[in-house]
Amino acid sequence: MLAYIGRRALLAVFTVWAISVLSFAIIQLPPGDYVTSYIAQMASMGSVVSDEEAQALRIQYGLGQPYYVQYLKWMKLVVQGDFGFSMEWRRPVTEVIGDRLWLTVVVSVAALLLTWALALPIGIYSAVRQYSVGDYVATFIGFIGLAVPNFLLALVILYFGFTLFNAHVGGLFSTEFQDAPWSAARVWDLAKHLPVPALILGLAGTAQQIRIMRANLLDELRKPYVVTARSKGLTEARVILKYPVRVALNPFASTIGYTLPYIVSGSIIVSLVLSLPTVGPLLLRALISQDMFLAGTIVLLLGVMTVIGTLVSDILLVWIDPRIRLEDT
Amino acid sequence: MAVALTVVVAAAALAQSKSTLIGKLEGPEVVTDPAKFPKTLKEAPQLAELVRAGKLPPVAERIGQDPLVIKPLKEIGKYGGTWRAGFTGPADFWNGFRCCSGPDHLMFWDYTGDKVVPNLAKGLEMQDGGRAWLVHLRRGMKWSDGKPFTADDFVFWFEDIYRNKDLVPTPSAVLAINGKQGVIEKVDTLTVRYKFPEPYYMLPDVLAGSTELAGQMWGYRALGGFAPAHYLKQFLPKYVGQAELDKKAKDAKFDSWVRMFLEKNDWARNPDLPVLSPWKTVTPINTPTWALERNPYSVFVDTAGNQLPYIDKVVLTLAENLEVLNLRAIAGEYDYASRHVDLGKLPVFIENQQRGNYKVYLDPGDYCDLIIKFNLNYDADPEIAKWFNTADFRRALSLGIDRDQINETFWLGTGTPGSVVPTDTNKYNPGPQYRKMWATLDVKKANEMLDKVGLAKKDAEGYRLRSDGKGRLRIEIMTLGGQFVQYTQISEMIREQWKKIGIDLQVQEVERSLALKRTAANEQQLGAWNNDGSEHLFTFPLHVFPFEVDAVASSGPLYAKWFQSGGTQGKEPEPKMKELMEKWKRAFGVPEKERIQLGKDIWRIAVEEVYIIGVVGQGPAAMGVRVVKNNMGNIPSRQYNSPDGKTPGVSRPATFFWKN
Question: What ipTM, to 2 d.p.?
Answer without folding.
Answer: 0.75
